[in-house]
Specification:
globular
Length: about 210
């Protein structure tokens, strides 16, 4: 009885942590993407398609519409300035210079968004780590080698899904230029993790069936 209670507590804690992780990430993305749209000249104009679908900033009901005729300018943080300084001059306190006063930052994007690929990548990796912690607590497989030892012990569809999320996590963690991720994929990844955790949690043999020798 005590073992069952501890097991359930582990699962409830997993659900809590994984939910916090994905909701925090999606909210951060919404804020970042909303700001990206406001500073992007390609999104200027009240009737621009960029404002037909969220995320975007909108006024309270009855308040004046946020002007969108021209792009906004973002005042960067001390941390952003220091990162630019170090990457261009080698010193956090020395800013780069140019003849026209403009410093071009060639940064990777995904459909016009810098936030999408980075936030989705980080939360996908985090989701796996949260799931892994739960799987370890019930002696379930957490890597490819262990999953191969589980053939015949785990339903093929479960094993296939587990191997898929392990492979994607490994791509995002270890490859310099992995296939680009996005927030839709990150939410789908979270959904897969939740499903796998539920499957393992519901197994009456969780303490024996998934113990690998």
């Amino acid at each position: 009885m005590l073992a069952d209670a501890a097991h359930m507590n582990n699962f409830e804690k997993y659900k809590e942590l994984s939910a916090q992780s994905i909701c925090q990430a999606t909210m951060i993305f919404d804020l970042a993407r909303s700001a990206e749209k406001l500073v992007d000249p390609n999104c200027s104009g009240l009737n621009n398609p960029a404002w037909s679908e969220g995320p975007y900033l909108a006024p309270y009901v009855g308040a004046p519409e946020i002007p969108k005729a021209h792009p906004y300018v973002i005042m960067i943080s001390i941390e952003s300035q220091a990162a630019v300084n170090i990457s261009h001059t080698g010193s956090a306190s020395r800013a780069p210079t140019s003849n026209d006063g403009i410093i071009q930052l060639i940064l990777p994007e995904n459909n016009g968004s810098r936030a999408d690929r980075y936030i989705s990548k980080l939360v996908t990796i985090e989701q796996f780590e949260i799931l892994k912690d739960f799987l370890v607590s019930i002696s379930a497989p957490i890597n490819k080698k262990q999953s191969l030892k589980s053939i015949g012990k785990i339903e093929p569809v479960v094993l296939s899904e587990l191997e898929a999320i392990i492979a994607r996590r490994n791509e995002l963690t270890h490859e310099i230029s992995p296939p680009i991720s996005n927030m839709r994929e990150a939410v789908e990844y979270y959904n897969s993790c939740i499903w796998l955790a539920q499957v393992f949690n519901d197994s009456e043999h969780y303490g024996k069936r998934f113990t690998l020798s």
